[in-house]
């Protein structure tokens, strides 16, 4: 039996759109195939074959008509691609048999025909290509290896190769036949003296994408990574690999990106085996996946490692089982055990190695997040598990969808490094200390030294805003970027930025208004600190003016900001209690020009505890620069007592202590139930009923002497 290198089949094709160096870049279909057998052992050539291919759309570009001379009428009479490929295989096999050969290798003028046209089109039409289309010889690379002085590979053309070896080109044949005959001339010349070249280097096309884990210590070349945008949210790594069919993706080289809430955002980072495949992937910009077009851009190795890299030994052990299908489960009850999950999946979906094939995602303190990853040995088991999508486990419905090794790493990195919502640290000792000269509360007024960004992409982070600001970033106050969340704790598309002066704010609003951020234009308006405070506290800001946050108890709701004078002592602020290790120290604000030096204006949560406040009051939006709590936190201790004495002296007596807000109370909960819940803590007043206020939302207020960490 002859080896693959004994027989080559010179192969050429053309599409209904761009050809030559842009072949396959416009996603057009094949319309012409030409081939000829070359017996390398005898230096003989076979019969020249040419056949037309009927595309689904016979709309030919002007370039195609000019270069090929084909018409729509001719193509309508041709056979579809599947039939043409069968004819090709039968014709070549019969001719090889007559030559005493049994195997062959395709030879093409560059990889575009195989990688950018044939494989993507066959994938879209669900055609199974013969094995011969997964290996080929690139004539340009063989010529460069034989004649390195002819120039770089990317600059080689058929004309330049023929000129280098001093062979006149064939010009009188019709399109397709002319190109194949010229390729055969070059091959025969390389086989003869003085070159005596051996065609031995085979290019391969991966049959399937291999999943795998990636370590953060691994070196990733930035020239091999792209970012794909606009993906359907349910896309898996196999779907993305199918979109890039024909190009070789590195093992574990597909990383689906997640947003701040841990859900897929329609983007993925893809790592290829080399820069050549990356460059061909960039030519698939705005090609289609189903009915959606996918944008393809350059990315860096650092971006890929940030998403796909991991350091957890548990994850590495979980992903060490190769050729496994990964399914992500979301919405699990926090009390769910491995046995519960295995029982939910059932015997028709056996998990690989039983409980070892389950990976529960947890917070750093060990609390479950409700997510888990499951390994299945084959596609059939995974499909059976996906049929249980949104079925009930306990009292919750469970979401199941395909996942990837990179997504496992990303989810574990996200939850294990820092919780999505900052947890309350242990309280500091309640001791008196000298009053700070400038307390950490934001000063409010009508000075328009802030700007409001409206229409941000929901995936925008602090880094994106700083890049959007450009040279004006230097004029932002320290920790002065505030992301606004909606009532569900998700990005609202708004943000506020505190500038160093009103002049700077005006300049930014003029220069950055309707500037683009991630394909969206962002509106930039100048505003005041007062307007910013209203919105961050849950109010609305629109053309009709300010709408304060909703309030349920009129007696506890001051109509506007409350001013107070500093007392000789100060208890640590609520912001200090809530301060996350990721957040910078709250800045010291400037005193308002219209108020006395020792007077502070603040929006007191003590007086608004019963309103439906947004999460922004307690938790910053992830990621965030400042702690928004530090600007609105009620001053506890004696400072809080002074405020309470002015606003509601009968309800909040001036005693040391702090307020605790309770959410999610049963509607039938009474005072005794609340006191039982706080058993072991000492309360200031004797008449507890006067200190407990239960709103219609099930939120209560109570004032213990010690701060309670709930």
UniProtKB/TrEMBL annotation:
Keywords, sorted A to Z: mRNA processing, mRNA splicing, Nucleus, Repeat, RNA-binding
Biological processes annotated in GO: cranial skeletal system development; mRNA processing; RNA splicing
Gene3D superfamilies: 3.30.70.330, Ribonuclease H-like superfamily/Ribonuclease H (3.30.420.10)
SUPFAM superfamilies: Ribonuclease H-like, RNA-binding domain, RBD
Highest taxon listed in the record's lineage: Eukaryota
Classification via CDD domains: RRM2_ESRP2, RRM3_ESRP1_ESRP2
UniProt name for this protein: RRM domain-containing protein
Classification of source organism: Eukaryota, Metazoa, Chordata, Craniata, Vertebrata
């Amino acid at each position: 039996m002859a080896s693959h290198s004994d027989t080559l089949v010179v192969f050429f094709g053309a599409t209904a759109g761009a050809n030559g160096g842009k072949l396959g870049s416009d996603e057009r279909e094949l319309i012409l195939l030409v081939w000829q057998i070359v017996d390398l052992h005898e230096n003989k050539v076979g019969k020249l074959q040419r056949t037309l291919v009927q595309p689904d759309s016979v709309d030919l570009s002007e370039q195609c008509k000019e270069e090929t001379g084909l018409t729509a009428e001719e193509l309508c009479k041709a056979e579809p691609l599947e039939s043409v490929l069968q004819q090709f295989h039968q014709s070549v096999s019969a001719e090889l048999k007559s030559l005493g050969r049994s195997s062959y290798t395709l030879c093409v003028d560059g990889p575009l025909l195989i990688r950018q046209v044939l494989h993507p089109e066959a994938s879209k039409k669900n055609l199974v290509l013969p094995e011969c289309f997964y290996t080929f010889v690139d004539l340009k690379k063989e010529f460069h290896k034989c004649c390195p002085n002819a120039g770089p590979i990317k600059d080689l053309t058929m004309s330049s190769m023929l000129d280098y070896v001093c062979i006149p080109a064939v010009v009188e044949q019709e399109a397709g036949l002319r190109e194949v005959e010229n390729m055969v001339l070059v091959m025969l010349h390389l086989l003869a003296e003085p070159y005596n070249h051996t065609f031995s280097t085979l290019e391969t096309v991966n049959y399937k994408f291999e999943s795998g884990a990636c370590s953060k210590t691994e070196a990733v070349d930035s020239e091999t990574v792209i970012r794909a945008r606009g993906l359907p949210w349910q896309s898996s790594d196999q779907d993305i690999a199918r979109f890039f069919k024909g190009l070789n993706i590195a093992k574990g080289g597909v990383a689906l990106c997640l947003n701040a809430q841990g859900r897929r955002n329609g983007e993925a980072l893809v790592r290829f085996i080399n820069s050549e495949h990356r460059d061909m992937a960039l030519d698939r910009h705005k090609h289609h996946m189903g009915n959606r077009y996918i944008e393809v851009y350059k990315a860096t190795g650092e971006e890929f490692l940030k998403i796909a890299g991991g350091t957890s030994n548990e994850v590495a052990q979980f992903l060490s089982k190769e050729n496994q299908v990964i399914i992500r489960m979301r919405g699990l009850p926090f009390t769910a055990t491995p046995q519960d999950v295995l029982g939910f999946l059932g015997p028709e979906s056996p998990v690989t190695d039983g409980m070892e094939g389950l990976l529960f995602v947890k917070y750093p303190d060990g609390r479950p997040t409700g997510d888990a990853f499951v390994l299945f040995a084959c596609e059939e088991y995974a499909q059976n598990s996906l049929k249980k999508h949104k079925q009930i486990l306990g009292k919750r419905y469970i979401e199941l969808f395909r996942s990837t090794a990179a997504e496992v790493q990303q989810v574990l990195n996200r939850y294990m490094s820092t919780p999505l919502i900052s947890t309350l640290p242990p309280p500091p000792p309640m001791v008196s200390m000298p009053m700070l000269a400038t307390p950490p509360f934001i000063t409010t007024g009508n000075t328009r030294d802030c700007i409001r960004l409206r229409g941000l992409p929901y995936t925008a982070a602090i880094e994106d805003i700083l890049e959007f600001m450009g040279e004006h970033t230097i004029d932002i106050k320290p920790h002065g970027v505030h992301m606004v969340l909606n009532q569900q704790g998700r990005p609202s598309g708004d943000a506020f930025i505190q500038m160093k002066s009103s002049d700077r704010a005006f300049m930014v609003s003029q220069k950055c208004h309707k500037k683009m951020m991630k394909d969206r234009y962002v509106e930039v308006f100048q505003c005041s600190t007062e307007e910013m405070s209203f919105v961050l506290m849950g109010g609305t800001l629109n053309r009709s003016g300010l709408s304060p946050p909703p309030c349920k108890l009129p007696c506890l709701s001051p109509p506007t900001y409350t001013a107070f004078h500093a007392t000789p002592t100060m208890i640590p602020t609520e912001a200090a209690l809530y301060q996350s290790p990721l957040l910078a120290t709250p800045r010291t604000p400037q005193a308002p020009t219209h108020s006395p030096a020792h007077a502070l204006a603040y929006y007191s949560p003590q007086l608004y505890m019963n309103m439906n406040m947004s999460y922004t009051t307690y938790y910053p939006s992830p990621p965030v620069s400042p702690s928004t709590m530090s600007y609105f936190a009620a001053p506890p201790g004696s400072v809080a007592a002074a405020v309470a004495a002015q606003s509601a002296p009968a309800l909040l007596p001036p005693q040391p202590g702090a307020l605790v807000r309770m959410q999610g109370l049963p509607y039938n909960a009474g005072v005794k139930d609340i006191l039982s819940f706080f058993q072991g803590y000492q309360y200031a007043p004797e008449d507890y009923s006067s200190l407990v206020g239960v709103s219609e939302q099930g939120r209560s207020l109570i004032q213990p002497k010690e701060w309670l960490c709930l």
